[in-house]
């Protein structure tokens, strides 16, 4: 049962749907009209600007017909049809989450218990079956990382992985980079040392949001890969001491990298980043690339370092880590705004050769949304 009403001034519409009530402003409804004069039928982009809408726009009439809401706007005397389902899905008259650090329902945090169920798939399967690719990308979006096996053990095979969902992001390291022992390396990642769990390139703005690491050789002892859910670590810190969470989200850390001639990268961002409404949207943690912290006032610096130290201890806790070994033809991808990755030290005998590259999460999420939309359209 759906009913509609208009307030006396005509600037608010009230929609009663399945015993829930939603209010919409006239200007919002007019701005979100989907008629062919307002939106391009071919790409859905707006054909008008807000300046083209009368600032005193009102609703002069509204009626429900089946699953459609019909509205007449004045002073244009313009009729527009709306899908009621679309209006409910996009309703903004809802209770707001006020707690800092909230997460979207599509995100699931994890710890070492996920070792029993690492989100994995076969490369050839997801390359040939859209439904399998959709399921794998859904897991990557939910957990922030995913593993692939069965790929070719050949130079730059990782490019084929990126082509499954997006585009390579080129950096000063090139379109891809080698991860193996080098003499006089420009980065600690290219040695046999173990690495603390970290997010990559926090000194970039914007930071690469997807990283791919692809194994080509793996006969050296050790070198297991580890991942840690930065969102889980941040929420654990918050539960232990909300002041620690607040100080790391309130002030910017500074990150820098100048390990190559002609390169001097710097960025200022909080280690725990929140959206204006308190949503937890990113974690940046990389001790190797941390510069002097200067954005924290004197009276909060001691607390900041307490929080920084404790966050590092949580990240280092083995109860937080998922560990796996990559064999030739296997790879994993991580959401670099959320999941920290690391590796254990490996020996000087044998060989260990991985290739890595960066991509961006918008491509992955776009591919996923397109696949989900295709499934929905087929069901209809």
CATH superfamily of the largest domain: Clavaminate synthase-like
Secondary structure class reads alpha+beta
| Quaternary form | single chain
According to DSSP, the number of beta strands is 21
Task: Using the alpha-carbon principal axes, give the shape.
Answer: globular
Give the helix proportion (percent range). 25-40%
CATH fold naming of the largest domain: Double-stranded beta-helix
Rounded Rg: 25 Å
As for the number of domains, it is 2
Low-confidence stretches: none
Nearest-integer average pLDDT: 93
Order of helices and strands: EEEHEEEHEHHEHEEEEEHHEEEEHEEEEH
* Beta-strand content bin: 25-35%
At the first level of CATH, the class of the largest domain is Alpha Beta
Annotation field: number of helices = 9
Organism: Roseibium album
Domain Gamma-butyrobetaine hydroxylase-like N-terminal: 10-87
Catalytic activity: N(6),N(6),N(6)-trimethyl-L-lysine + 2-oxoglutarate + O2 = (3S)-3-hydroxy-N(6),N(6),N(6)-trimethyl-L-lysine + succinate + CO2
Enzyme class: oxidoreductase
């Amino acid at each position: 049962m759906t009913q509609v009403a208009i307030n006396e001034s005509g600037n608010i519409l009230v929609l009663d749907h399945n015993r829930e009530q939603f209010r919409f402003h006239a200007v919002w409804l007019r701005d979100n009209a989907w008629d062919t004069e307002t939106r391009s039928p071919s790409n859905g982009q707006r054909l008008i600007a807000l300046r083209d809408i009368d600032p005193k726009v009102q609703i002069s009439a509204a009626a429900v017909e089946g699953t459609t809401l019909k509205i007449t706007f004045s002073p244009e005397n313009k009729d527009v049809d709306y899908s009621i389902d679309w209006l409910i899905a996009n309703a903004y008259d809802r209770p707001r989450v006020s707690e800092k650090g909230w997460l979207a329902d599509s995100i699931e945090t994890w710890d070492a218990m996920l070792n029993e169920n690492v989100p994995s798939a076969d490369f050839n399967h997801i390359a040939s079956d859209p439904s399998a690719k959709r399921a794998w990308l859904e897991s990557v979006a939910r957990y922030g990382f995913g593993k692939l096996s069965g790929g070719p053990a050949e130079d730059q095979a990782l490019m084929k992985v990126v082509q499954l969902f997006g585009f390579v992001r080129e950096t000063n390291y090139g379109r891809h980079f080698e991860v193996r022992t080098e003499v006089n390396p420009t980065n600690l990642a290219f040695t046999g040392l173990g690495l603390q769990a970290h997010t990559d390139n926090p000194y970039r703005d914007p930071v690469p949001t997807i990283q791919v690491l692809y194994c080509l050789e793996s006969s050296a002892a050790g070198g297991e890969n580890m991942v840690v859910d930065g969102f889980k670590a941040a929420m654990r810190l918050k539960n232990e001491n909300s002041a620690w969470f607040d100080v790391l989200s309130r002030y910017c850390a500074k990150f820098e990298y100048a390990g190559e001639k002609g390169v001097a990268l710097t960025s200022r961002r909080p280690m725990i980043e929140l959206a204006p409404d308190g949503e937890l949207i990113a974690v940046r943690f990389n001790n190797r690339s941390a510069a002097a912290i200067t954005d924290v006032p004197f009276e909060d610096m001691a607390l900041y370092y307490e929080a920084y130290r404790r966050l590092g201890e949580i990240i280092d806790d083995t109860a937080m880590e998922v560990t796996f070994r990559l064999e030739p033809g296997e790879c994993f991808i991580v959401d670099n705004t959320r999941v920290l990755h690391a590796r254990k030290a490996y020996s000087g005998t044998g060989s260990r050769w991985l290739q890595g590259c960066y991509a961006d999460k918008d491509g992955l999420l776009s591919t996923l949304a397109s696949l989900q939309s295709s499934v929905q359209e087929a069901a209809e």
